[in-house]
Design brief:
The complex is a heterodimer of chains A (about 130) and B (about 130). Chain A has a single domain, classed as 3 helical TM bundles of succinate and fumarate reductases, CATH 1.20.1300.10. Helix content of chain A is about 75%, strand content about 0%. Chain A is built from 4 helices and no strands. Chain A is extended and about 55 Å long. With about 130 residues, chain B is mainly α. Chain B has one domain: Up-down Bundle (3 helical TM bundles of succinate and fumarate reductases), CATH 1.20.1300. In chain B, helix 3 packs across helix 5. Chains A and B meet through helix 1, helix 2, helix 3 and helix 4 of A and helix 3, helix 4, helix 5 and helix 6 of B.
Chain lengths: ~130, ~130
Amino acid sequence: MADTQRPTSPHLQIYRWQVQMVSSILHRATGIALAVGSVVVICGLLQLAAGEDSFNRFKSIIGSPVGMLLLIGWSWALFYHLCNGIRHLIQDAGAGYAIPQFVRSSWLSVAGSIVLTVLVWTYVLMAGGAA
Amino acid sequence: MSAKDIAIKDQRNPLKVARGLGSSQSGVSHWWTQRVTAAALVLLGVWFVVFVLCMLHADYAAAHAAVAKPWNALLLIAFVLTMFWHAVLGLQVVVEDYVHTRWKEVVLLVAIKFLAVLGALASVLAVLRIALTP
């Protein structure tokens, strides 16, 4: 139960979906996903420090189908948060606030993240798969 | 509180009492730190992705040697510390926006900080152990 009894504003289902909204929600969602994904980075470093057996176990887990699927998801989240983060930094500097620019840069973040993800995984598959 | 204390308090200019409350002084530091860590993570994040891609087929010895290289160890530690710092700032805003019960909000905010510090320390110790073991 919320402490405050403020009147609530119309929620998401009221609005027609538009890309500016999606890019903003995705930025938060990918941020949370990446914070969770940091566990993989910690584990990788700890297993590498722990020795050869631990590291090989870690490699086989992240190289498994489920592991790869999660890594694809996390890599997209990283690239989206990176692209949209750069977009936000530019906006924080005061540029790109006109509505057409704002919409265009939203699409640019979404498209850029997908292109980067595809490029990276194409490289991984061409190099013969991860791990 | 005695009548004397109240009398003394009342002597103060109301502005003096109000000044320093709220986020007017320190609020901008959260915003600013989030942007500075973001700018650092643009560089460190790209480096990290390239670093990981270069280690695709590395076995234990190669991965160990790669992380142990001074520049790589340095940048890895910088990446991990900046990442957790940025994550704490970002998750803090999310919790403040969506968790409306005060005790749950405070518990979550503190828990996030505890976990981030543990994660950062564990990662740094791991990198140092790798870098300093021959």
